[in-house]
Structure formats: structure tokens, C-alpha cells
Amino acid sequence: MSTTEAPILDPVLAPPFPVAALPVLRNAQLRKNVAHAIDVIQAKRARLVAEKSDWQALRAAAAAIKDQALGDLGAYLEQFEERCTAAGGQVHWASDAGEARRIILEILREEKADEVIKIKTMTSAEIQLNPFLEAAGVRTYETDLAEIILQLGHGEPSHIVVPALHVNRGQVREIFARSMGIENLSDDPQALTAAARQYLRQKFLTVPTAISGANFLIAETGGVVIVESEGNGRMCLTLPRTLITLAGIEKVLPRFQDLEVMLQLLARSATGERMSPYTSLWTGVTRGDGPQKFHVVLLDNERSPILARKTERQTLRCIRCAACMNTCPVYRQTGGHAYGSVYPGPIGAILTPQLQQFDHAQSLPYASSLCGACYDVCPVKINIPEILIDLRAKVTDRERKTAGKFFDPMYLGLRVAKLVFSRAWLFHLAQWKGRLVLRFFTRKDGWIHSLPSVGAKWTQSRDLRGLPGQTFHEWWKSRDQGPGTREAERR
Amino acid sequence: MSAAADHRKEILERVRAATAGTGWSVGFEDGDTSAAKGGEKGGITAGDYVRRGSLSSEARLELMAERLREYDAVVVECQPEAVAAAIREQLKASGRQTFVAPAGLPEEWLAPEFRWRIDGDLPVDEIEGADGVVTGCSCAVAESGTIVLHHGPAEGRRVISLLPDWHLCVIRSSQVVETLPEYFDRCAIREQGTGNIEQNKSPALVTWISGPSATADIEMTRIKGVHGPRFLNVVLVKEQGPGNREQALGIRH
Questions:
Q1: Fold of the domain built from segment(s) B57-249
Q2: How many domains does chain A have?
Q3: Share of chain A above pLDDT 90, in %
Q4: What is the ipTM of this complex?
């Protein structure tokens, strides 16, 4: 795609956020595409949230439901397994990405499948399933319009609900015309959508195996729920002989009735609709209706350690609505690729480092201004700023314990600061000295515009106010001893 | 096979170790767990968020029709004795010839001047080749303009309301609730009636349809009809004394 140099969404290989963000910040077209898409969704969401008088109560209920599920996750997973199995499904457990890929390939081999149709699933992107299957000789066909655009254009998702929002109609036209071999294709979204419908129809009717993700797993019934707009999901859930669903273990809800809360929140938050056009629920296998073989792969992949951390556990409440990235001032400027993960935006900034056990993506907790907009819109009340701060502490703690960082100017400076701030006489001395030194750099307007050496790290991107001629302590003393002060107090 | 068992054991052990003794309300901020604590269902309490609608049955039906029209659906209203005629009119107006119908659709709805393919186990290409489909529904939610299919005898298999490009759905006024929680309450009542409340009390297959298939993936421009039916038609049947039947069912608090 001509949009930007190829983004890397593998956190192990991706450059740090500030580096990865640069090409996007320089790409005016890309930023325009992202801003436009976000403005549209934001406006729709705001309108539909405003019409719900009980929005805050729904958010609180959703958070409580997810906390209940997460707090007793072992029991709910076992209940889901039991009920799903009783209904004719087969449940598999995958500790990590490699195991999930292996299980899925094994099922496909058993089915003698050399091609597979897919419903958009971020979890499959997380475990990098497509390249793995292609390498093993299984052709994968994404069926969500945005995913087709990315697959045919060799692009990467930049958003979890509208993955191709960074691509504009001209670029889509180019991709479709080239890979579908259509001449004279117009760039009208209607025509482009029709081309995709045509392209996929035969696949839906003939490919006997499908892979999906899941929005919710219902422990009480063993049911699985998928929320979608286009109908490609319903095609994949209905027409093939065999269906494989890949789901993170955190997707479990205790009861069927919990959907009454989740479904009211999800579409409003994600796409600014009261309900998404199609929500499908199925339970195991139904004779005569839909796939007669059904597999669920439950994926841990570093989710269980998150459960153990009190603050961070909230991360797993996420229902992947993307409201946080739509509202985030940082995401708005950088788009999704800068996050170096299939999960961008504020939720990605907290989820990715944890899924990587802090070995990678350490820059992501800093990819935020901590303004809190993400927390305000989150339908399951994940306190993202709180978690970001917590993760920053974890990243820093890890870093400063590494040997090479002892003489790092920042940590050196912080140790000196600790010393100075904990002794009053040193503090006063430092104030006095600092005033003497900084006076040389303070301009007439009272601001310091540039500092030499280490200080330049601050002043190259912002000004520093010059120190005042008098400290508070000095002022207080002078006031105390000044003539007439006691008089004034007595009155 | 033993490797698979190991993964299961390993994940469950890790999850149990991580959640042991923490309780499920950990991380719930504001110190307010009231929404999560009480309730006979062991979860959320009623009255916390809006469960029951406030509209009169008249207004509820109006809202349902309005929402459906917002989705570009064609909505016609009729009296119970005029359902067959209303359907026939819609079929005529569509200019289409061949329709799929589920086996449980009332026979008088199948107007004789059209070709009907009655589904039991129709092959996919016969469904794909039809011009449209006529079904009933299990419930409808006015607030979001949602049609709910449980895929019973009058709704048919999932595939028949998916492949044809034109879908006509008959909704009886007694099937229309105002809010989504009211729909879930109805599911619970139905199962109480059957005495089967302990396990699998919810329907095994559900499709919630809220407007025709759509996408906004290209520059957020809403385009109708990607893969599902592009045309949705609704016959809304105004039964005598609307609401009476619902009261007879009794909505649980």
C-alpha cells in the first residue's frame, strides 16, 4: 500500500512508539484519513450514548459482570467447556500462541482443508495465524470488508473495529482493481462494496471450513456470541461444515442474561449504533442448521498472569469496542500502526506490554497524556490512566535494576534529587545555587528558552520558567519580620 | 492427547492461582459493588439500569416501526385477519417470483401466485437462487428496532434468512417489547413455563437483526447490503387489545 512504509505489528520486532509514530506524523494523507473516520464514529457514539439515561448504570453493571467472570474464571471456563461439549462442541485449550496455531492446523488437516474463510478476529491477528496457515499450505480468505482491503493490499490493521480506517476510497479502488482484476472500477464505496460481495459470494458457498473469533462465551449455556455488521459473519457461522472459534479466556460471561447489558453497550460504543445489524448466538452444534462440527480454542497467551495483578485485572474486562482509541488525542495523531501491535490505542498501550510480560513494548505505557478520556468512554469502566501509571512504574522498576542504567543521566539525576529533596539545608542550598546558575539563561520575558547539555533535553521541546527572585520560604520570613505585619494580624 | 490435557490443566491452575482469594469484585472502583452484589440471579440487580420500558403499547409499536424505517426497512401495519393479504401485497410490490418459507409458516400466508420453496433441508443453491424469504420472528425490541429469531418452525434455519436478498418478516404486536432486558425476561419466562429452568434455559440459536446488512469500512460511508439481505420488509400485525397477551405472560421484575 502506498500509505506509509510497512508497519510492524509484532511487539517483539516493532520499534518504540516515538520512533514508529514518526512516519505517520509526517504523512498528512494518513492523518486526514484517521481523523475523518474517528470524527464520524465519535459523533455517532456521542448521540446514541446521550439518549441512554441509564448509561452510567449500564457501565457499572457491565464492569461488575466482567469482574464476576474474571474473579471466578476457572469455574466459568470449566462450566463453559462442560455445556459446550454437551451441546456437541469440542473445546481445546491453548497456553500460548504456538499451541493455538498448532491446534487449529491439526483440525484443518483432519478436515483436509486447504482453504478457510475467516470472520474478523483480532485474536487470530494476535497469534499471527494467517501467515502461519499460509506457510502450512492453507489459503486464508478474510471476509470482513476492511480485512479484505488489508489482506489484498498487504496492509496491517490500525484499529480493532474499523481496521482499514487509514485507507481511503482511492486506495481501496486501486487494491480491488489490481487483485480482483476489475477494470473501470469506480471509487464509489457502493461499487467497492459490491465488488467485495461478488468476490466473496462463491467462497462462502464453497469453502467448507471457517475460523471465527468470539465477542462473548456464555458459561451458563456453552453458547458463543458474535456481533457484526455485514453478514459475512453469519455466512461463516452458517454455511461451512466445520467452524473453529478462537477466543481469549477472558471472553466468558457467567449468564445468558448478561448479554442484556453487554449488547446495549457494545454497538453504541463501537460503531455508534443501537445494536449492530447482526448479532449471532449459537450453542455447540444444531442438527440440520449450520456447521455440524464445532471447535472452540480457548487461548491464554499471557492473560492469566494479568488476573493476579489487582489494578491490571481490569484490562481483561475489555470487550474490544475501540471507544478508547476513538477518543484518544494521541491515537488521533498517530493512528494505530505506531503502537506496534494489533491492539492499538489506550487499550493496546496497557494490554500489549502485559501480553509481552514487559519484555517488549515498554514504550507503550508512555504513549498517553493521561488525560483520562479513555476511562470516561470505556463501557466496562477500565481505569486506563491508573493502569498506565502502574505499568510505567513496573517498566521503570525493571529498567533501573539493570546494571547498565546505574550511571544513566536520568537515574543519576533522580538519585541526586532524592538526596536533595530529603534534606532541608541541601534543598535551600540547591535553590540558591540554581538561581545563580539559571539567571544566566533566563531571558527578559522570564522564561528559559534553551539550556546546554542534559538540560537541552527539556528545552528542545518546551520552555522552562525562570526561577523567581525569591523563594516562598524567603518571602514568608521577610513578611514575618516586615514592619506593620504584626499590627495587621492583630486587627 | 496428553499434551492437550496438560494445557488444560496448566491454564486452569494458572487462572485459579491468580484469582485465589481475590474475590470477584476486585478492581471495581468507587467502592460501589451494589450493582454486582445482590439479586436472585446472583448478579446484577433489577432497577439498577432500565429494565422495563415506559411506553404505552401504541407508542411501543410506533417506535418499533420508526426504528425499522430508520434502517430503510419497509414497514406496513395490518389487523390480524389481514396478514395474508398484507404479505401478498408486499410480495407483489417486490416484483419477485420465488420465495423460501420455513416449514412452520402458516399455509394461508403462501400466496398461490408465487413459487414457494418450503425449507426443511433445501440445498444451499436453491435458497441462494430464490428471490426472497418470508419468516415470522420470536420477539422484537422496539428501542433498537431489533428483530429476534430463535429459528423455530416459523423462522426456519439460519441460512434461509441470510442468503436471499429480500427478507419479509411478520411481527405480531404481542411479540414487541420496548427494551432489551424485557426480551431477556421473556426468555426466562418461557423456560419457566416448560419447567426447564436449571440448565440451557436460553435458546440455542439466536439471531438479532437490527437493520439490513451494512458496512462503513470505506471512509465511514454507510453502505447497505454487503452479504446479508439488502432489503428488509416488515408486516406489523396489530392484534386485538394490544398488550393483553403480554400481561397474561406477566413480565417479571
A1: Rossmann fold (3.40.50)
A2: 2
A3: 79
A4: 0.89
